[in-house]
Amino acid sequence: MSGPVKGGATVKARAELALNDEFLRKAVRFTTERLRNGKKKASEEHGNWEEWRERGRQIRLHTIAHLDYYLNLFVNNARANGVHVHFAETAEEAVKLTLDIAKHSGARSVVKSKSMVTEELHLNHALDSIGVEAIETDLGEYIIQLAGEMPSHIVIPAIHKNRYQIAELLSKEAGYELPPDTTALAGFVRKKLREKFLEADIGMTGCNFAIAETGSMVLFENEGNARMVSTVPKTQVTLMGMERIIPSWSDLEVMATLLPRSATGQKLTMYMSGITGPRRSGDADGPEEMHIIIVDNGRSLQLGDPEFQELLNCIRCGACLNACPVYRHIGGHAYGSTYSGPIGAVLTPSLNKNIAEWDDIANASSLCGACYEACPVKIPLHDMLVYLRRRKVESGHGNKLESIGMQGFASVMGSAKRMSGIVKLGKLGQKLVAKDGEIRLKLGPLKGWNTYRVTPSLPKEAFRDQWPTLESELRNELREMKPDMLERMKQVAERQKQGGGGGHHG
Amino acid sequence: MKVSLFVTCLSDNIYPKVTEAMARLLARLGVEVSFPPGQTCCGQPAYNSGYWKQARESALTLLDAFEDSDFVISPSGSCTGMIHHYSKLFENEPEQLERTARLQSKSYEFTQFLVNVLGVTDLGAVFPRKVTYHPSCHGSRILGVKEEPMRLMKDVRGLELVPLPFAEDCCGFGGTFAVKMADISGAMVTEKAAHVLETEAEVLVGLDMACLMNIAGNLRFRGEKVRVMHLAELLYEGVKGA
Ligand code: SF4
């Protein structure tokens, strides 16, 4: 992945930039909170959210398990509808196919609706290089295109900018001052883009879902621009990841319930378009020629990999970003790739052969599991982050100092005796630095921690040292157990033995 | 029935009072506890960092120590949660897998054991203070401990529970994360502590000393006096004075 990566080679360096940018942090907090609350409300109102989440997960699991079958079905049906279907194994192939279509149709300009795959391929740069103007028509995408940046959120590309920054950017484009008012700004962009729509030779879209049984594709959006992109220009090119497939329209009902609610808290987006082939005689509008480019670019690496196959279930709703406490503080650009947040931290290394050589991105998580809890198709991203770390260590790319430390950990924690020995040494050592039960020293391994906190010092005696005394005290304090309590304990113990688990969840 | 304390390395070496409070509360309820001394650490620091071979060495001490226990009770949702990752950790060692399943089925976080096994929520505690509660991520998300502490606190006389804003957001601890990504972790704990202060509570309570050490560390760093306690400590203090 080569993309314009802002501000440094490591996630730490990029995160530092973000942490020092109060505007960015405030903008990200503001919008993720709005989206997060929206989702919470929408899923509560739905009433049966957990059940539908499981249905969504099952549909995705089933589809990906039989991806070759459903892809085939989709392609055959799309071709029967008159669509030119192409396959691209790599990003380069996908770009070349797109440029060939543009050259062949003599295109001079392309209007695009929001598509993360085209971002992943850096298509705008490629089109530009052959003299074809590519214009983003989604408001957020248009803003970051003007700013020359990557999207910092998979649903809200310009989430890191506040309206003052946006007004400044658009004023420059307009050549006169625009007020920092969302309606006015959107109005300006709409007018500006109207001309572009009419001029454009190609309309380029992504695809939220591709329906195998009819060879159709479905787009969710709020601005109406995707509908324009897919109806006005003569030629339509759709780029989609190979995993976008779902079997049928009835499966779409489940997905259409999960996606907008998870993404923005809406029951349904303002527009949902189903597109089945180019314009037929009698159709009022639609492109004369239609292409679909199905992109692999590292996705098939996850197929058949039990630890990562579920990544292909992702419906790119962005809920994991909005729930993530790390994303909240560092925004999307710190992830250094097209895809950001928890899904990006797993997807980026995975698309690049599942080895986290890709920077330290898998380490930028506290593994709190908020992503998993938010995900409408229950992808265990927090577990995958650990698998990535393990693969990095096992492939010999682990941090040298950390490996030594972990050897030490194993040797100390492999035996209670050695653990006690080390703790006793620590007690001697801390005499120099501890005061009033606290250590404030900002040196060595304590530097990072003590920049924001104080460290408690070790108590005189560990629990295990106190145990002999405590045990005899407990014997004196022991009361008689109530019979019903004893009965419950016995029942649970019995259930545990039968492998029924201990009724952990009440 | 043998009920064993899984002290966790953190409570063993830094916060012995927490497990002590837990043991004393259990004794008052008539539960006799044992402490198998062979136990060390659940292995989470190594597991989460990707050093699974090293994690297994540590995890084995638990499998051995609790072999013949009927119940294993810990003061940490995160460490008990880690036991549930053992099936993955030992996936290529069939003889350990079986022991792993047994340990999982008998392991409980402290409030789970009180509420779901013993069926008690009212310990007769009195604690007339304004309290806020931070639900630690692993306990609430991996083990599903959400209602249990709420029910226990509801039955404490005089306790006024003030909701913590953004309670479900991680405090930024994350084990080695706090060291490796110190500035991100620092931003997270700074915000968490600010939310605690916003509540104007006198006491912050939780179920996991790692998270509480993190938040308390930041509060002290700022010179704030909010008392930070494990729920077991709060309950024990509450029954002692009652
Ligand atoms: S991983 Fe889940 S929550 Fe995140 S974008 Fe994909 S579907 Fe949405």
Automatic annotation (TrEMBL), chain A:
Pfam families according to UniProt: Fer4_8 (PF13183), LUD_dom (PF02589)
Entry-linked InterPro entries: 4Fe4S_Fe-S-bd, 4Fe4S_Fe_S_CS, FTHF_cligase-like_sf, Helical_ferredxn, LUD_dom, LutB/LldF, NagB/RpiA_transferase-like
Protein name: LutB/LldF family L-lactate oxidation iron-sulfur protein
Organism the protein comes from: Paenibacillus soyae
One Gene Ontology term of the molecular function aspect: 4 iron, 4 sulfur cluster binding
Domain 4Fe-4S ferredoxin-type: 304-335
Keyword Transmembrane helix: no
Signal peptide: none
UniProt cross-references to NCBIfam families, sorted A to Z: LutB/LldF family L-lactate oxidation iron-sulfur protein
Alphabetized UniProt keyword annotations: 4Fe-4S, Electron transport, Iron, Iron-sulfur, Metal-binding, Repeat, Transport
GO BP: lactate metabolic process
UniProtKB/TrEMBL annotation, chain B:
One example GO MF annotation: oxidoreductase activity
Entry's Gene Ontology cellular component terms: cytosol
Cysteine-rich domain ranges (all copies): 3-83, 131-215
Name of the protein described by the UniProt record: (Fe-S)-binding protein
Organism: Paenibacillus soyae
Lineage: Bacteria, Bacillati, Bacillota, Bacilli, Bacillales
